[in-house]
Amino acid sequence: MTAARMLAVTVDCHQPDLLAEFWSAVLGSPKTRTWTDSHGLTYRQVELPGGPALLFQPVPEEKTVKNRLHLDLAPVELDQRAEVERLVMLGAKVIDDPADDPWVVLADPEGNEFCVLPPR
């Protein structure tokens, strides 16, 4: 039996260019691609080596509730606190820093939640 391969994690947003630049800097992946579908919508895609791409899809509606899917990140070179500070400087916002849990919850420039855990 053949299994499917995940091509991308798609994020609905208002500003695909802004989010692609933010996530490109967060993940240290400068390779991005822009493409337009048959309806004239322009998408931005951040290519991730060895993994699925992040695809930013323009939509007209606002984000209204907590994400049903979010990304968990672990720093590669910095400790967790330094990584959170770096992400805030890139435009993220700290949403929650629970004392009893090992993660910090942040939001990207359009309010999409993600977590930063300690290095692995």
Report on this structure:
The chain is an alpha/beta fold and 120 residues long. The protein has 2 domains: 1-62, 2,3-Dihydroxybiphenyl 1,2-Dioxygenase, domain 1 (Roll); 63-120, 2,3-Dihydroxybiphenyl 1,2-Dioxygenase, domain 1, CATH 3.10.180. It contains 2 helices and 8 strands. The strands form 2 sheets. A 4-stranded mixed β-sheet has the order 1-4-3-2, covered by helices on one side. The chain has a 4-stranded mixed β-sheet with strand order 5-8-7-6, with helices on one face. A hairpin with a 7-residue loop joins strand 6 and strand 7.
The 3D shape can be described as: globular
Given the helix and strand composition, which structural class is it? alpha/beta
Work out the number of β strands: 8
Under the CATH scheme, which class of the largest domain? Alpha Beta
Q: Helicity level, as a percent range?
A: 10-25%
Can you tell me the CATH architecture of the largest domain? Roll
In angstroms, what is the radius of gyration? Answer: 15 Å
Strand content: 25-35%
Order of helices and strands: EHEEEEHEEE
Strand adjacency order, main sheet? 1-4-3-2
Strand count, sense and barrel status of the largest sheet are: 4 strands, mixed
